[in-house]
Design a protein that fits this description.
Immunoglobulin-like; 2 domains; four-stranded antiparallel β-sheet; three-stranded antiparallel β-sheet
Length: 185
């Protein structure tokens, strides 16, 4: 018979309004009273029922951010603390911290899509790619720090990426696209 091994995995939904958590635990028998406590940055903790062996999807209503009947809102970015437990909860649990960056990733995607490869000359376009790579590096560093319980570092890296991305989106390469039209069209 298999030993009890609790484990959860956050699954990407590619939707800023949902958080998906997969139960990848190994159970010797059907678990008793499975629940998950989710601490949402800026909103506190909520304890919810959890379906073992399945992907559980949460939104702003189920996490207590919005009321039933209201439109679901994007979930805030930041460090989430997850604690999955089964009875008796004081001895059978697993904890995770994750850095949610979905809103920042949407902002990054918008900046990336603004990077018109045909608009600017090669030197300016190369610098913009370097800037976006640096921002992406900070985003990934933030995620890695949160996964390793380095919460202060995760927040610093997230804030730096957000600041750099805001500055990137305010800047303009100053090109009209005429260089491409004149030389390649």
């Amino acid at each position: 018979m298999a030993d009890l091994k609790l484990d959860i995995l956050v699954v990407p939904t590619y939707n800023s309004k949902t958080l998906a958590i997969n139960d990848i635990s190994v159970y010797p028998t059907t678990p008793s009273a499975p629940s998950i406590e989710i601490t949402v940055p800026g909103f506190g903790s909520v304890n919810l029922p959890f379906n073992p062996g399945e992907i559980n999807v949460f939104n702003s209503t189920s996490l207590g951010i919005t009321s039933v009947g209201d439109q679901d809102l994007p979930l805030p970015d930041g460090v989430y603390f997850l604690k999955y437990s089964i009875a008796p909860a004081y001895e059978n649990f697993v904890e995770r911290s994750i850095m949610r960056v979905d809103q920042l990733q949407e902002k990054f995607d918008t900046a990336f899509m603004r990077l018109d490869m045909m608009e600017c000359d090669r030197a300016i376009k190369t610098q913009q790619k370097v800037n976006l790579n640096s921002i992406y590096f900070f985003i990934q560093g933030s995620i890695a720090a949160a996964n390793n319980c380095a919460i202060d570092e995760a927040n610093k890296l997230y804030n730096q990426a957000n600041k750099m991305l805001t500055n990137f989106m305010k800047s303009d390469c100053g090109c009209s696209g005429n260089n491409y039209i004149t030389n390649f069209y």
